[in-house]
Amino acid sequence: MSFAEEIESRDRDFYLALAENPDCFQHRELLLRLANEAARSVKTAQRIRRENVTEMILEPIRDFERKPFIAECGDPGTMNAAEAIEACRILEERAARYYREAAVKIKALPEAARGLRQLGAKRAAGLNLL
């Protein structure tokens, strides 16, 4: 769950930086919307962890690593609008995939898995905005 918070926090910061980029001004509203969704998702991930921490300690997760879910999209201050939208697409796809796979890995904790699926659905919906 800490990695989910990390993904959402980094994506939020990236979207906010893109929103300040003059070359991305035409997408500013969309970028701020994505940033706000990521901020809400941080809080959701924290809540899921808080509510399931005891069970998570007792239920180890195997064969699930961060590395495939690390995405570097470049410097948001130097991107043009097309590059920014493509970077957003990469981040949204990566997050949706992470949540889908994490929900499967943590299926022994149904409430946590449900929360992860919901987070993934929100990120998949973000793809539809792009």
What's the short story on this structure?
Helices cover 73% and strands 0% of the residues. The protein is mainly alpha-helical and 130 residues long. It has one domain: Up-down Bundle (Ferritin).
Describe this protein's structure:
It is built from 4 helices and no strands. It has 130 residues and is mostly helical. The radius of gyration is 15 Å and the shape is elongated. Helix content is 73%, strand content 0%. It has one domain (2-129): Ferritin (Up-down Bundle). α2 (28-58) runs antiparallel to α4 (110-129). The longest helix has 31 residues, at 28-58.
List keywords for this structure.
single chain; 130 residues; mainly alpha; Ferritin; 4 helices; 73% helix; 0% strand; elongated
Topology:
Blueprint: H1 2-20, H2 28-58, H3 81-105, H4 110-129
Query: End-to-end distance, in Å?
Result: 26 Å
Number of helices: 4
The ordered string of helix (H) and strand (E) elements is HHHH
Q: What's the shape?
A: elongated
Biggest sheet features: none
Which radius of gyration do the C-alpha atoms yield?
A: 15 Å
Number of strands: 0
* CATH-defined architecture: Up-down Bundle
Task: Report strand %.
Answer: under 5%
**What class do helices, strands and sheet pairing give?**
mainly alpha
